[in-house]
Amino acid sequence: MMKNYVVLLMALFLFSCTSSSEQQKETISSASVNNKEQLKIVSWNIEWFGSSLEGPKDKDLQEKNVLKILTNLNADIYALCEIVDTARFGNVVRQLPSDYQYFISDYASNAKNSNSSSWQQAQKMAFIVRKNLLTNIQVNGYLRNNGRLGYDLANGRYPYLLSGYISFNGKNQSLNVMILHAKSGADQESYNRRKDAANILAENIEKDFANEPFVLVGDFNDETTTTITRSESQSPYVAFSSDGFHILTSNVSGNYQQSTIHYSSIIDNQIVNNTLYSYYIPSSTQILGDVQDWIKDYKQGTTSDHYPVVSLFSYSSENKPEVGSLNTKENTRDSSALFAIENTLVSNEIKLQASQDLENVNFQVMDAQGKSYIHFSKRNVSSNRPFYVKCKELPNGDYSLLITTNENKQALLFTKQ
């Protein structure tokens, strides 16, 4: 949440939170507070939201479920695909507990503008943005005059770009969030069109946003490390493997390693440029398959066939969580191997499993505004048994568990209810 917070005298407030294994217990003596702030960006394909022709059959139930998920996620920016019913969408936004504004693309596949006869029933892209987060917001279709790109992207589904000014490290600069909803299909032609679109986008994005924080998110309809097209072995998004970009979803943390219900691939991706990567919280990118714990019939297709994807950014480099150097890919490539979290929706404790025996491990729990509630160290953590962080006294809300060792670091997201 992009607000300035007065630092309260929270040192007087103690949490009786502990971490334990089957044989050991360790007590956290106190909670600490700081003014570190985080930016939470969620991307999600909400399958044919509100469509009278496609997608989940019960539209009222889909709307109810989407509202519950967005409320629980409590993100600063939502970048969404497949919005059909704009009235239903506006109704969802107005019911969110925080104050948001939203923007919907005025174009779609085979619809040049909102006056086109096919626009109403078309899949559109949309942003939901927390009010007072950005100033001077502008939204538009990126490279909308490029006919070749329009053809590559499902006949006119140009990337949807939101730009505004945000305070990064005490300086106001542009933040650019772009939604990509690429052409679907595992056939050769679809692959070729995705690859050509990626080449055009990578070249132009690197030029247009070289010195501005930039993130590309959405439904890429293909993987970034390989491809769903059997006749090919290379990802159509290889152009984003250059030194100018970092593919956050090439190394997601957490239990879920697929972004849709029915397939094991990660086709919903997030890519940042070097400028925004300097504010990225390592290993914070997760596929939120835990929405199926919030919506019990999620896998039955009541809401969407995709899972949300989330990443966290610290927008003050001086106040970034203490997780080591953030300047190279090598520092974060293997960080997700430290711990697996059993369930990201917790009540009394967080159950972790170490992938290997670890020494000198630091743990820190921070909320979405960057306030630190729990901070402790463990000399030894065994991989032979679960490791628990007890958090019964933690207020309900979204948190990140930051874990560091001498060599690695990891951030795990969870929700306390």
Automatic annotation (TrEMBL):
It comes from Rhizosphaericola mali. Residues 1-21 form the signal peptide. GO terms for biological process: DNA repair. InterPro entries: Endo/exonu/phosph_ase_sf, Endo/exonuclease/phosphatase, TDP2-like. The lineage of its organism: Bacteria, Pseudomonadati, Bacteroidota, Chitinophagia, Chitinophagales. The keyword Lipid biosynthesis does not apply. This is Endonuclease/exonuclease/phosphatase domain-containing protein. GO terms for molecular function: hydrolase activity; metal ion binding; nuclease activity. Its cofactor is Mn(2+); Mg(2+). Residues 42-274 form the Endonuclease/exonuclease/phosphatase domain. It comes from the Bacteria. Keywords: DNA damage, DNA repair, Hydrolase, Magnesium, Metal-binding, Nuclease, Signal.
